[in-house]
Amino acid sequence: MDLYGYPLKAKFSQPRPPPPKVLPATSTMAASYKNRPASHSESFTMPWMPNTYYKAAALNPTLSPLSESFPGHPPTKMVPFISERPNSVFTRHTLDDWHRNNMTNYKESETTRHNAERLRADLTRTIKDVYQQTKRTQGESTQNLGERVNDIEYWKSELCIELDAMIRETNSLADMQKRLERALADTEGPFQVAHKCLLNREKRMGIDLVNDDVEKQLITEIKIIRSCRERLQQCLDTVNNQLMCNKEARQELEKDLADKQIGHHIDSKCYQLKNSSRGLHFFKGVERIDATVSVPETWARFTDNNIFRSQSARATSAKLRASTESLLMGTADEMWRQFSKVNDAFTSRITEIANAKSKIQTHLAKTRQEIFQIETKIQVIQKTIRDKEVELKLAQTRLDERTRRPNVELCRDAAQLRLVQEVNEINETLRNLHQCLRASEDMLQMLVRSKGVLEYDLVVKNNSLFIDQERCMGMRKSYPSTVQILGYV
């Protein structure tokens, strides 16, 4: 049984029986002591006490069974409880033995005291040396802990400065990412507008379905917008990758800073601990546990590498932001210049179509006027032909009546000759009038055909003008401004 503290009270594993009303016999008591199981003392962690205390405590008398032979003393020194000869006197020791025993005890006491004094002097010197050594060692440990706390505070400040700079750079790059996303989304509108303009211009009719400068500029605009979208998308992917690198570097800094804060808290607590501090305990064998994973050189190099990695990521991020800003301005300017070129081409084309439409309307009005006049002339010719036919009927009726003259009355006189001449003249006039009528009718057909062509051409020009001026230019008025393309809103 190991003893670590003050003497403990006896503890019985079985409950003590109640005392009997009649005392048992001596033999019964001896038998009860023999059958009684040994008691067990509790073990507790107590303050340190010298071993001499337990040696002295071991000399305390203990109860022993009441038997005829007591194992603690030799049989010669046993005092019989019942004498066979009550009237006799027994002599155990002589007086010289008694004096010699006293002298022996005195000398032994003096020797023991002398040794105790020497031991006390040695212990006092040893305790003083131990105290001084412990104080010196503890002071060195405290000084090392203070230096360690200062080193941790220095690296903490460096980590905080770099972490703040990394957070600002990451936020700036995140804003640039949002501008890129907005700029990329804003290019979708102009791309759809240019594409719809091409589709709408496919609805032109007839001769106006030409590959003019507007169509060429629209195709160029679609190519430029597609190229700008590809470059913006590539830049956005690069920005996203750089944001991941920045976040990784920031996480390493935050993790290192959190470890530094915990280490600073622990080392500060250890630095402030004193011998009078509360909560001090024994931790047996803790000095044999080596849980370290770094040395001061590798410890400082680890933090320095984290800061260097963060600085490199910040420099790359700043360069990427500058190139992204330049790309946004370049793409916006390029798209805006092409947008202006397309609008100028549309304006020029609309002016041409409007002029053509005006000329067609003028020619159409003249053609209609000419058609009206030709139709009037045709009516006049037809009336003239009808009149001449009446005159021809009259002359032919006269001639026919004169053929009925009898015998010699059938005279070829001047009247007969004039009637015949009149009929011939009227026939010639009718032939000329019919030729004029046919020519006028042919000319009328040509004018009508020309009128139809002009009217169709006017419809074509109206349709082209409506497509270019109303649909295409109407959509292109909603093109995002340069500020929107650059992503500032």
TrEMBL record:
Question: Where is the protein localized?
Answer: Cytoplasm, Cytoskeleton, Cilium axoneme; Cytoplasm, Cytoskeleton, Flagellum axoneme; Cytoplasmic vesicle, Secretory vesicle, Acrosome outer membrane
Entry keyword Membrane = yes
Task: Check the record and name the InterPro entries matching this protein.
Answer: Tektin-like, Tektins
> Among the record's GO biological process terms, what is one?
cilium movement involved in cell motility
Q: What is its main location?
A: cytoplasm
- Report the superkingdom from the record: Eukaryota
What is the recorded membrane topology of this protein?
A: Peripheral membrane protein
Cite a GO CC annotation: nucleus
Does this entry carry the keyword Zinc? no
Q: Which UniProt keywords are given for this protein, alphabetically ordered?
A: Cell projection, Cilium, Cytoplasm, Cytoplasmic vesicle, Cytoskeleton, Flagellum, Membrane, Ubl conjugation
Q: Which family does it belong to?
A: Belongs to the tektin family.
Description of how the protein assembles with itself and partners: Microtubule inner protein component of sperm flagellar doublet microtubules. Interacts with TEKT1, TEKT2, TEKT4 and TEKT5. Interacts with CCDC38.
Task of the protein = Microtubule inner protein (MIP) part of the dynein-decorated doublet microtubules (DMTs) in cilia and flagellar axoneme. Forms filamentous polymers in the walls of ciliary and flagellar microtubules. Required for normal sperm mobility.
Protein name per UniProt: Tektin
What species is this protein from?
Answer: Malurus elegans
Question: Upper lineage ranks?
Answer: Eukaryota, Metazoa, Chordata, Craniata, Vertebrata
